[in-house]
Amino acid sequence: MGKFIKFLLTVFLFFTVAFAAQAAPVIKITGLGFDNSDNIVIINSIGQVFPKIMQTPEDNDKSVRTPENIITKSFLDNPDRVFVDITNAVLAGNQRTYTLKNSSLNNVKISQFSTNPNTVRIVFEYNKKFDPKNFAVYANDRQIMIRYSNTLVGSEKFKTVYNNMTQGERKVDFLESVTYSSETKEKILNVAQTTEPQFQTVKEEEKNTKLKGLYYLNSVSNVANGLMVKGSGNISLKNSFVLENPLRVVYDIENSIVAQELRNKSFTLPSSSALVVNGVVTQRDVLRVGQNTPSTTRLVIQGNEAKNYRLVISPDLQGLFIAKRTDVLNAKLTETTSTVLSYEAKNAGENLDVVNITFSNPVALTTFEENSKFYVDLQNVVDFNQNAIDELHKNPNYNGITAQKIASEKTRIIFPLKDSTAINAQISPDAKELRIYFKKRVKNEPPVVVTKPQEPKEQEKEKEKQRPSTIKQMYTVVIDPGHGGADVGATRANIYEKDITLEVSKLLENYLKKQGVYTHMTRDRDKTVELNERSDFSNSISPDVFISVHVNSSVKEDIIGVETHWYHPQSLDFAKKVHAKIASSRNLSKWETKDRGLFQSKFYVINHTNAPAILVEIGFISNPNERRELVKEKRQEEVAKAIADGIMEYLKDRK
C-alpha cells in the first residue's frame, strides 16, 4: 500500500511539473535597446518577466521544469563571445545582428535559439577592450538588462546644473549623435538546432540615434541628514518643476539610465518630519526614483516640505546630495576647497548674456531661484575673490551681481533677474568652470504700420473687409493629450492615462474644428513627447490658448472629481470659463462626480507656454467607478464637448 501511494505521488508530481512547464509564462522579446555610451543593453519585451538568473547553464537543474524565465550566460572563444539564453521567451520577428562602432562589443546577435522549450539567445562578440568581469545580467518583473562595462564614455561638453529654458532657448544641444548599423536575417532557419545558429545577414542603412546614457544611476544611500544619489558618468539636469496634490518637486536627469533594482523605488528622507499613523511612526517626505523616458531619469521629492530641499552636485559630477536647505548649509561634502579665479560677463547674442566663473579646484554646488533672484551656492569655495567682483561691477550691466560667505567654506553668488528671464547654468566636466546663460524673454509685438488717412466711407469699407467672417480666421488652439508612448501616465487595471487623454483630445479637436477653429495637437497618436517639446511646439505656433488634458490618480480609491489648473495670471479667466463648463451642476450630476475646484499649479507645460494655458484633470483613474466611465465613448464625448464649450466662450468673450 505504501509503495502504491508513493507511485501515485510520483505520477501526480510528474503531471504537476509537466503542467507547470506547459503553463509557463512566455514573454515576447521585441528587440534590443542600446545604451550607446557602450555600457548597457536593454532587452525590450512584452509580458511579465519571472526572472531566475543562473551563472552558467550547468547551474540549471534540468530535472525540474519551472515556470520561470531562466537566464543563463556562457563564454566561448574563436571568436571571443558570450551568450545569454532566456527560457520561456519568443522572439518577435526575424533574428538580427547589431554591429556596434567604437565599442568593446563588435556585434550583438539575437535569435530564437530553440522551440519547445522556447529559448531566445543573445550572442555578444567582443574585442580586447571588453572585460568579462563586468558582464552581468539584471532582471525584475518588468525588464531584463545586460551591463557589460563599468565606465561610461566621457564627454567634453558642459553639463547642465540648472535649466528653465525651453529647447529652443537653450544655447547648446546636449544630445550627441552616434551611429550603428543594424543587420537582419531575411527569415528564421532551423530554429530548433542545438548548436549556435549561423547568421546570414543583409545590411540595413546606418541609423542616427541619440546618446542614451551619459550617466548610470545605481546607488541611493543615507548620509548626514540626507540622501546621496550616486552613479557613474556625468550628471546633467534637464529641468525641474513643481506638482501639487500631493506636493512634489520633480528633477529630471538627461541622457541617463537607472539601475533596474532602483526603478520605481521610494526612499525616506532622513531629516523629514515624522508622522504617527495608527501608532506607527512614518516619515512624511520621500524621494522617488524612476526611468521617465528611455533617456531620462526622474527624481521626485514628495511631502509637505518638498520645496525646502536642495540638490547639491558633487565635484566629480557623479553624485547628488539631497537634504533640507539648512542641512545642506551645515554639510561637508568634500575635503577639497576651492577659490574663485575670475568672473567674466558678456553679451552672447540677442537678449542673451553669459556669466563665466572659473575656480582653482572642482566645486560642489547647488542652484535655485527665489524672489526674482538666481542663487548659486558653492559648497567648498573659501574665497569668492572680491577684487574680481569689483572689476565685474565696472560694467553697469552686471553691477547687481554679488557674492558673500554663508559659512566658513561656503560661498553664495546672487544674480538679480529682470523681467522674464530664462536661465541655463552649465558646469565643465572637470567642475572648474561655471557658465550661466540668461535669456530675456521678449513678447513679439506687432509691427507698427503707418497708413494714409482714409475718407470715412473708405474706412467703413476697410473695417468691413477686415472683419472676420468666422472664428476660424481669428483663433488657434493647441491641444495637448497628456503623456504618450513610453510615458503611460497613471495606470490602473491595465488602463493607461495616455489612451484616455488621446481619445478625449481627438474628440475635442473635432468639436473645435466644427466651429471653425484652427487646432494643433502636440501628439495625434501614441508616441513619447517630452514636456519641453510640448511647450516649444505651442510657442512656435503662438496660439490663442493651450489646453493639456489629463486623468488624475490617488492612492485613495474613494477620491473622485474634476480639476482645472492654471499658473500664469493671464490664464485664470480661461481656466474659470472651461472649469465652469466641465464642473457644471448638470455634468457633476450626470457623471456622479465632484467639483474639486481651480488650482494655481506650476505644471511644466502651463508654466512654459506663452499663450493662456490650462491643464484639466477629467476624473480619477484610481477610482473604479470613475475609471469605468472614463473609458466609455459617451463620457469622453461629453467631457470633450464641455471643454470645447468653455474654450469657445472664452474666445468669444475675447473677441
Give structural notes.
- The protein is α+β, with helices and mostly antiparallel strands and about 650 residues long.
- The protein folds into 4 domains: about 25-155 and about 175-210, no CATH class; about 215-330, Sandwich (Immunoglobulin-like), CATH 2.60.40; about 340-440, Immunoglobulin-like (Sandwich), CATH 2.60.40; about 470-655, Zn-dependent exopeptidases (Aminopeptidase, 3-Layer(aba) Sandwich), CATH 3.40.630.40.
- About 20% of the residues lie in helices and about 40% in strands.
- The chain contains 11 helices and 44 strands.
- The strands form 9 sheets. Strands 3, 4, 5, 7, 8, 9, 13, 14 and 15 form a 9-stranded mixed beta sheet that branches. A 6-stranded mixed beta sheet has the order 12-35-36-29-28-32.
- A hairpin with a 4-residue loop joins β10 (about 135-140) and β11.
- α5 crosses α11.
- It is globular.
Largest sheet: 9 strands, mixed
Number of helices: 11
Structural class estimated from helices and strands: alpha+beta
Q: What is the highest CATH level, the class of the largest domain?
A: Alpha Beta
Mean pLDDT: 79
Summarize the structure.
With 655 residues, the chain is an alpha+beta fold.
Keywords:
655 residues; alpha+beta; Immunoglobulin-like; 4 domains; 6-stranded mixed β-sheet
How are the elements arranged and paired?
Elements (H helix, E strand, L loop, with lengths): L1 H21 L4 E9 L4 E7 L4 E3 L15 E8 L4 E7 L1 E3 L4 E4 L5 E10 L4 E8 L9 E4 L4 E4 L11 E5 L13 E9 L15 E3 L3 E4 L4 E9 L2 E8 L3 E7 L4 E7 L1 E3 L6 E4 L5 E4 L2 E4 L2 E8 L2 E7 L6 E5 L5 E6 H6 L7 E12 L2 E8 L5 E6 L2 E6 L2 E3 L2 H7 L9 E6 L2 E7 L4 E7 L5 E8 L15 H11 L9 E6 L9 E2 L2 E2 H18 L3 E4 L9 H11 L3 E8 L9 E5 L5 H11 L2 H7 L3 E6 L3 H4 L5 E8 L3 H7 L2 H22 L1
Parallel strand pairs: 1-6, 3-4, 16-20, 28-32, 37-40, 37-41, 41-44, 42-43
Antiparallel strand pairs: 1-2, 2-11, 4-5, 5-9, 7-8, 7-13, 8-9, 10-11, 12-35, 13-14, 13-15, 16-17, 17-27, 18-19, 19-25, 21-24, 22-23, 24-25, 26-27, 28-29, 29-36, 30-31, 31-34, 33-34, 35-36, 38-39, 42-44
Helix pairs in contact: 5-11, 7-11
